[in-house]
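Subject: for your reference before the review

Hello V.,

The reviewers asked for a structural picture of the protein, and I figured it would be easier to keep everything in one thread rather than splitting it across files. Below is the amino acid sequence we used in the manuscript, unchanged from the supplementary table.
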Amino acid sequence: MRFTIRNLLCALIVTAMAGICTTGTFSKAEASVIPYSVIGVHEFDLPVKYDPFNVILSYNIYNDDRNAWGGPSGGQDSLLTINKFAHFFKVDALPNVGFLWELVLGGASVRLKNDDSVSGMIDPQVGIVSWIRPLPNWTTALEYWLYVPFGDNEISNHAIDNSVAFLTNYTLGGLTFDGDFGIKLRGDSHYNGVKQERGDLLFGNLSLAYKFIPNVEPFVKLDWVSAGKGKDLGSGATVASSDETAIGIGNHFSLTQKLAADVWYLRGVDGRNNTKTDAVYLKFAYIF
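And here is what came back from the structure prediction:
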């Protein structure tokens, strides 16, 4: 079966940024990015009948970190570049189920208020996704991610994390809806002699697009995250819980049969104890 970029652009369920935790004041170089906020158009419009194939994606995010919800921000801005490889495969015994495994590597550069800056590799991620299509125009999927603390010292979360998310897509003519809801279970962080219990994350994301003509497919987004409170296990001090809601607008471009791009702006509209989202996203996908 031959695929077009419309069917498979962002067919990969991307949590490339979820490995960088949300935080209000920068105790170390941590950028604030809502999990799954990289979701664009047709994100979960996944096929079930196909021959194995691969996709390479590049995600680039610039965020203005100077403002925070309910407290000071220690950062000025951050730039994240994420590279992802995904392999779509089939299981003969399950012909109506789709599968993919994925690997994420990336880098971050964070500029702090004191004009210091840190940069390096973020924590790598590995994941697997499975999905079905109950109806020809409706997809439901389940995704698991493992985050390993192998990033550079000033960028890593210094913890092993796991996340699980339910994903769905529905299309009707030119209208496309993508949504997800998930939980990220965050392990204890060990950094510079400090051991910290980190609160788990709940998150949800919605994307709604309408295709008028080729390369004119605008979309709107709604992203949300809530982090539970944590604890400094040395001093016993409580680390406050946090949350944020953001909205965005952008457009999807089908550049060729195998290459596409999404660009959008995302801005926080409500939050607590968190750096405010004020970000531009640029995403490319190439099928081979």
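For the response letter, the relevant points are probably these. The mean pLDDT is 88. The first strand starts at residue 53 and ends at 64.

Happy to draft the paragraph if you're swamped.

O.
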